[in-house]
Amino acid sequence: MQLTERQKEIVEIIKKNGPITGDEIAKMIYITRSALRTDFSILKKMSIIKSKQKVGYTYNEAFVKSNNKTLVKHIMGTPVTIDESYSVYKTVLLMFEKDIGTIFITKDGNLSGIVSRKDLLRIAIGKRDIEQIPINLIMTRMPNIIFSMENETIEECVKKIIEHQIDSVPVIRIAEKNGKEIYKVVGRFTKTNVSRLLLDILENKNKERGE
Ligand code: ADP
User: Fold this and answer.
1) What end-to-end distance do the CA atoms of the chain give, in Å?
2) Of 2, 45, 110, 111, which has the most beta carbons under 10 Å away?
3) What is the rounded average pLDDT of the residues 87-116?
4) How far is the CA of 66 from the centre of ligand 1 (A)?
C-alpha cells in the first residue's frame, strides 16, 4: 500500500519530533485533528507509527522496511548515571526511585563503573555503614565494563549480554572533554528492550498472517 503525501508528511514529523500528540501534528500541518484520524489509523495498522496514551505518537523504528538493520540506538532506554562520590545508601534509594536494576557511574562525564542490584545487596548484608561507603568502592569498574556503541546491531549487543551473563549494558559515545577522549553514556540497553522488540516482531508476524 502506497502512502499519500500527507501520510508521508506525518511520518516525517513523528520521526523528527516523536513522541508527539495528534493535536501537535495537526497544528504543524494546518489540518484539524479529526481530519487526520484516518491517516493515524492507517499508519498504526501498517506498524509505521505507534501510539501510547498520554504520550503521543512515536516512529516504529523496529519495523521500518528498509535495508537498515535495527540498531541499539533505535530501542535503547534512558540511562541513570551518578557520580563516583555517591554513597552506597544514596545509590540504593535512587535504584528504588528510578525502578531500575543497574546504575552507571561516571567521573568527569566519563563512564567509570556500573552497579547492579546484587552488588548493593552484597554490601548491605555486610552490616557496614553504607552511608559512609562511596559507590566507587564496590562498583565493577573499567576496563571490565561491557558496553555497546549506538550503532551496534541488536544481535551484537544481545550476544554480549548472553556471553557475560549480565542484565544490561551502557551505550556510549566517544566524545572529547578538555582535550581528553571520554566515554559518554548516552543510553542503556537491557534484556527488557530485547523482550519488547521480540514481542513487536511476533505481533507483527501475527498481523501479517491476518491473525
Ligand atoms: P544482578 O546480578 O544484580 O541481577 P547483573 O547480572 O547485571 O545484575 O550483574 C551481575 C554482576 O555483573 C554485577 O557484579 C555487576 O556489577 C556486573 N555487571 C553488570 N552489568 C555489567 C556490564 N555491562 N559490564 C560489566 N559488568 C557488569
Assistant:
1) 19
2) 111
3) 97
4) 35
Supply the Cα-derived Rg of the chain in whole angstroms. 21
Cell 484539524 sits at which residue? 32
Euclidean distance between CA atoms 19 and 36, whole angstroms = 17
- Measured from the Cα of 170, ligand 1's closest atom is 23
Residues 150-180 have pLDDT tens digits of: 989 999 999 999 999 999 999 999 888 888 8
Instruction: Classify residue 69 by its DSSP letter.
Output: P
Q: What is the DSSP string of 25-61?
A: HHHHTT--TGGGHHHHHHHHHTTSEEEETTTEEEE-G
Q: Tell me the pLDDT band of 108, cut-offs 50, 70 and 90.
A: very high
CA 93 from chain centre, in angstroms, equals: 22
Q: Choose among 193, 163, 162, 201: nearest CA to 78.
A: 193
The predicted structure's pLDDT at residue 105: 98
Give the SS3 label for residue 106.
strand
pTM recorded for the entire structure: 0.71
Helices (H), 3-153: 5-17, 22-28, 37-45, 72-75, 88-98, 117-124
Tell me, using a 6 A CB cutoff, whether residue 191 lines ligand 1: no
Pocket of ligand 1, candidates 81, 104, 118: which has the most ligand atoms within 8 Å of its Cβ, to mutate?
118
Which position has the grid cell 502506497?
2
Q: Ligand 1 centroid to 112 CA: how many Å? A: 14
